[in-house]
Write a structure and sequence with these properties.
Pathway: Cell wall biogenesis; peptidoglycan recycling; Amino-sugar metabolism; 1,6-anhydro-N-acetylmuramate degradation. This protein has 435 residues and is an alpha/beta fold. The chain folds into two domains: 215 residues, ATPase, nucleotide binding domain (Nucleotidyltransferase, domain 5, 2-Layer Sandwich), CATH 3.30.420; 177 residues, Nucleotidyltransferase, domain 5. The protein is 31% helix and 21% strand. It contains twelve helices and 13 strands. The strands form two sheets. Strands 1, 2, 3, 4, 5, 6, 12 and 13 form an eight-stranded mixed sheet that branches. A hairpin with a 2-residue loop joins strand 7 and strand 8. It is globular. The two termini are 26 Å apart.
Length: 435
Amino acid sequence: MIVIGVSSGTSVDAIDAAAADLDLRADGTLHLRPLGHAEYAWPDHLRRRILAALPPAAVDLGEVCQLDTLVGQELGAAARRAVDDLAGGDADLVASHGQTLHHWVVAGRTRGTLQLGNPAWIAERARRPVVSDFRVADVAAGGQGAPLVSILDALWLGHDGGEGARATAALNVGGIANVTIVGAHGEPVLGWDTGPGNCLLDGAVQRLTGRPFDRDGELAAQGMVDPAALDALLADPFYDLPVPRSTGRELYDSEYVATRLAAAGVRADLSAADLAATLTELTAATVARSLAEHGPAGGVGRVVLSGGGARNPVLRDRLRALLPVSTSLVTADDLGLPADAKEAYLFALLGYLGVHGVPGTAAGPHRRQATGARRPVVLGSLTPPTPLPVSAVPGPVRRLVLTTSPRAMTTPSLPTTPSLPTTPSLPTASRGSTR
């Protein structure tokens, strides 16, 4: 089955699309052949409206209704382009994460989550059935609804055991940073949000320089970390919450840094370079702290980095400096999965699992799922609701293997259109991501 995964992150900088050819074998091995990935830019006017609707903004229902329609139309147009650009016109299904507008968390527990992008519009424009609304079923079963990537990490990065085998930490640095701890295949995994990824840095750079992000970490490399400001930001109670846990722009909103520094009596008039350096250090420090506090007692053997943060050399250097010397840092690209497209491939995987009635959550500790859900949960809803002509799966999905092809793991050079221009090459920059 060929599935197109589409997603948009908290930075709302692009619609990410990936095409995956998925084939489940009788031994429980799911083969994923990456057919390619691309980025489609949001129209400027719509991107501004989405950003204006994010917390702490107060938005009326009329705007929510309009955004749900407009986002769905744009995601549908992107999916239609991806069917042709990435899959040669041959795709069976679209899996859409949508655009997160709010993640409702009270006292560490997720009560609800809202992603916009009505699937009926996506199905109409892509001319394909659509699986969407992946997070709510997990929340209804007591889970955090995020990060959902733990199922991909568990199937892909588990080891076969043996003496000296060590766990892997799959780290995704998008708008929010999250991590999954993966041991041997079949063992419970644990995933959680560590804190801010790129969202605070991107917002500060946009506000102070007009640039969309700190390309190649250039601004942070020119600055110095402000210890007082860093300590004030690290004192947020979120970092003391038990795992699994989740967060989003409702905590790390556009006023977060100024509010935290003012409450601590710390000067907020840092230079753009010093603020960029401090916020980059915040991301690295909260990741390292989170792994030390909640990871395995013996540490992890490697950290596999994905998301926009994988393109930021300053962040990578700070992670290497703060992680134990016995822990290696590699990117998802090194292991065959494009770091920029991992989440789009994730939703392609979840769409495939969903239409086959296979749970999209990974087993976690204490008889819970990795997200904290009480039971395994099939994720997503199908639009239209007519059952797909798919064969029953031969048994449980035990592991995922990446297979390559001549056009796998490439971003094609695509012609642009006024409504959905594409990015012909991936920027080496800190970018937002879904979680």
